[in-house]
Design a protein that fits this description.
heterodimer; A: mainly beta; seven-stranded mixed beta sheet; five-stranded antiparallel beta sheet; 4 helices; B: mainly alpha; Serine Threonine Protein Phosphatase 5, Tetratricopeptide repeat; 2 strands; cell division (chain B)
Chain lengths: ~425, ~280
Amino acid sequence: MPVPPLSGLTRRRFHALAALGGSGLALGAWGPAQAQFRVEVTGVGLQQIPFAIAPFRLATGLPQDVPAIVRANLERTGQLRALPGGSAILDESARPDLAPWRAAGVDALITGSVERLADGRFDVRFRLWDVVRAQDLGGLSFPVPASDLRLAAHRLSDYVYERLTGDPGVFATRIAYISRHGERHNLWVADADGENAQTALASAEPIISPAWSPNGQQLAYVSFEARRPVIYTHEVATGRRRLLAGFRGSNSAPAWSPDGRRLLATLTFGGSSQIFAIDAAGGGQPQRITQTSGIETEPAFTPDGRTVYFVSDRGGSPQIYRMTPAGADVARVTFEGNYNISPAVSPDGRWLAYISRIGGAFRVCVMELANGRITPLTDTSADESPSFAPNSRLIMYATQAQGREVLMTTSLDGRIKTRLASAPGGIREPDWGPFQR
Amino acid sequence: MPTRFVFAAPRLAAYGLLLALLAAALPAQAQLFGGDDQARRAIIELRERVEANRLTAEQANQALQQQQTELTQRLDEELLGLRRNLVEIGTQNDALRRELAELRGHNERLAHLVAELQRQQRDLQRDWQAQLDQRLRPLEPITVTVEGVEFQTRPEEVQAFDAAMVVLRASDFERAARLFGEVVAQFPRSGYVVPALYWQGNAQYAARQHAAAVETFRRMITVSPRHPRVPDALLGIANAHIAQRDNRAARAALQELIQAHPTTEAAAVARERITRLR
């Protein structure tokens, strides 16, 4: 019997199929950073905290400009605004006269240093001052090898951001995304600011749907290297990978359970697309979760693991539903419009981001789960793959701007957007990783 | 096609019959080998019989074959029909499935709408109840304690009395006297009548309407002879008489006070005042 068409969903989801051809597969090689991002912030928050970074006392020959990275990080949130940091060097032990800073409208001042240690490592130190209350808000020291200077800058940013906004920072987290350049398809792992990108997998065939494991050590993804979609899990640190689902038909849309013990995925076995549970450790038969004659796909767990949001066309058009992980208590969630796909639940469990077709345009929307209130967040028309930052304050998504595939982030009110413009070729399918402990 | 084998079976059965006949004929031939003519005749006869049998078998076979061809043809036609039906059923099934999905979607939207309407109705009901409560509140009786007496009253009475008190406290005695008088006239059965009369008397006294004050205090005492303010009212009457230089009437009022309410504070004042009246 023919499966009822779900043309949009299937086409968009699998449109990478069209590029089948060529051969070759480079595994796990941590290649050099190629995708250099340029950050553009659009929109203005209502309340921005003005901060300044005084010139750090810096060792010579530093491979990374730590204060510049921190400044870019904080500005990119849209919640903080950088003011000039003056010309006098102030390190973490300085006791600066805060009156002139206060007069200049600075609320928070960052001082610090990067020193070369005897063992060749660098010590990144800083101190944060509340200029208004004339209070020392503390500081930290990160002794790191040169290769981790960026990480130290991110951790510094996390500290400052959390002290100033009350929310945990996400600068030290990582993102995964896919690039396509000609017939080269790469799976990248990059810092949350898009820099420091390393290729985790290079293939002549499309790669889609990367999904971070809850502990941030593995990625699950769909690869077409066998000329049909199969799911791999991939240890990021070692590049070691394992075939998770290579069953007859198509294997797609992997989603980790919050305990990391199993994944939900869409399998066809030659029939219609249905959601199955697969043991993350491998082995055993996939357990069927949905039982319909339609298309069931794109599962996404809530952080408490008690609910799974997914897409189904059982009601005649693709809509988002929810159910228990065992497939019980199915209830429809989206009712506006006739095309709602790609659900993602925020780590705090309060928000559901998804793609909705609004007047012919595919846009990221966010629903407040407590009251069902919906806010469209973008004015672009080809948004895909929304994914929440681990602090639930930003959503990263793929879209097209000026005819190019780009990654963007937006605040949950849609007010502040940043664009992570890539190197040549398209980038898409972002997934924001968890906090790194 | 399995069906062909089923219909081949009768043909096999016909061959079997022929073989059996031949087998039966053979021993007879051997027995009659002795006489030539007899044997030839027997053989001819046997040949004829075999030939006849053969013809019969062939005819039977042909009939069977024809029957089989006809059956096969009919079956093929029926199969073709069934196949057409199956395709049609498949198409119908697809259509039904689509229709079912649409109906399911419709049902989901309706269920959602009902839930939404229920929620709105609950909200409306809650708002309406809140509004009603707010509107009814001024009409509901409330309990107040005025001048040491507790009674049930209505908000408008409280408002009228309190408004008069405000004017009194502002030392606008004539207006206060008028307002207290209005309270009494407007709410003749209210618990406020006695305190209104008492304060009207005081206001009239302060406004130097001494005769009116005496009259008002007397009215108050008549309405509520056991009211805690009665001694003060009697003192007020005495004061009004004194102001009118009617010491006799004043003394009478003071004595009435001392006798009727000897333990009160007002009585103590009255005793002191009586001595001064002499």
